[in-house]
Amino acid sequence: MKYGIKAFCWLLFFFLSIYLGMSTISLRLIAQNALDQERDQALAAHKSAALLFAAMIEDNEPTTEQWQQLGNTVQHTANNPFEIIDQEGQQLYHSDPLYSGLATHLNQEDLVKNTIQVSEIIELNEQKSLLLQSQIGGSPYIFISTQQLVRYPETLKQGTDFFRILLLVLQLILIPISLFLTNLITKPIRQLIEQATNIANGQTTKPFKVKRRGDEVDDLAISLNQMAKKMNQDLRQIRKEKEKQELFVSSLTHEIATPLTSIIGYAQMLQWEELSDSSTECVDYILSESFRLKQMSEDILRLLHSQKHELQCTAIAASQLETYLAAFIGGLDQAIALDLDLQQATVYMDLNLFKVVAANIVANAVEAMATPKELSITGRIDNDRYFITFKDNGRGIPADQIEKVTDAFFTSDLTRNEGHLGIGLSLVQNIVSLHDGEVTIISKKGAGTSMTIDFALNEVNV
Predict the structure, then answer these.
(1) pLDDT band, very low/low/confident/very high, at 220 (cuts 50, 70, 90)
(2) Measuring CA to CA, how many Å separate 161 from each of 8, 27, 169, 172, 236?
(3) CA 354 from centre of chain
(4) Helix or strand run (H / E) with residue 456
(5) 348 band by pLDDT with thresholds 50, 70 and 90
(6) Contact 115/50 with Cβ under 8 angstroms?
């Protein structure tokens, strides 16, 4: 989950938690106030009825008929159902058959003289009620009355409904507020992420501007700017050093080329003369090494040129590539059994550079193959790219060298006696990268090599 979503959820949860806490407390206070009012009302009614009974009983012990008369008299003034019991719990009178047996809900042993005991809220006849009990004056009789709660449940229901509606309204208000606060919190973080991404993509010259906040985000922004500044300085220094190296190599290569041409020319002139066998052998060696050195110089210049080359891409038909490859490989070595199958498409590429790529890949394949020489070249379309695969039956590449073969100046011949400088596949890598493609090598020692390169399709095919 993204940080912004987490921040939004936490803010909304925080606000709703505060609301739920405050609404619960408020609802409890409102309901308790209603309950206290009804309890006071019940106490007043109970006390009044108990005093009336005490006045009428005096010191007598009423009979059953007298209790009936006394009860009926008090019932006219009392609004709440009640009953009278003696100390043994025997019911002497009840005003309402529906509320008979109220004493079973109370404990008479806990009753204190001259006090009115009020029960917790109980359910009587599916209604919330309070039970009250007290002794009638100094007599051994106990007066029990009930108070049906009306205002308390109504207040509780009305308060609950009100806070539920208020919760829905608050959600409509809190959601945009939480979104606003989330955006306010995450905006500098998103800016930092954007700046870090720019730095990762090499854009180190543009400083990151952030409002002075005096917090950790401000410190992180300053650190990013310092890092970008240092990276920019290092990159400039690296580019300068690289330019110096390329200039040195290019100048050295050009300086070598001029005397090398003279050496080759004079050596060829010596071949026309009548020389002894030992002298002829020396001249031949001079020529072979001179040509090898010339080839190395040309390879270095070609590699340097490819790194700065501006592509001149055009739409090239696959059939045109097929014709070129067949003619090139046929002229290179007629002993190669060529299997050429390119899916028809129009490829967007620099044809001259493709020829350099193909020449280097095929040259490596030819060198790696023994008799019989088998080479297959296939082309296919996949995800708006055109993939060309060169597969030979040569000696293969050791697994530990596959990732290194496209590095400049890498060669499996550590003595370099074969005359290779290790530039060919590096040149292939550079040219394919200029086309936004990749070089994929699959090889196993003794089982041949498969090399795949890819180019963009022309927009007509997309």
Answers:
(1) confident
(2) 27, 11, 12, 17, 70
(3) 40
(4) strand 449-457
(5) very high
(6) no
Tell me phi and psi for residue 127, to 5 degrees.
-135, 140
Q: What pLDDT does residue 124 have?
A: 85
pLDDT tens digit sequence for 310-326: 678 899 999 999 998 88
Strands 336-342 and 373-382: parallel
DSSP 109-159: GGPPTT--EEPPPEEETTEEEEEEEEE-TTSS-EEEEEEE-SHHHHHHHHH
Cα-Cα-Cα-Cα dihedral of 227, 232, 233, 239, to 10°? 140
Which two tokens mark 144? 């029990």
415 pLDDT more than 50: no
What CA–CA distance (Å, rounded) separates 46 from 426? 105
CA distance 228 to 302: 34
74 touches 88 (CB < 8 A): no
pLDDT digits (tens, 9 = 90+) for 264-292: 887 888 888 888 888 888 888 788 777 76
Q: Torsion over CA of 55, 61, 65 and 66, rounded to 10 degrees?
A: -20
DSSP code string of 56-89:
HHTT----HHHHHHHHHHHHTT--S-EEEE-TT-
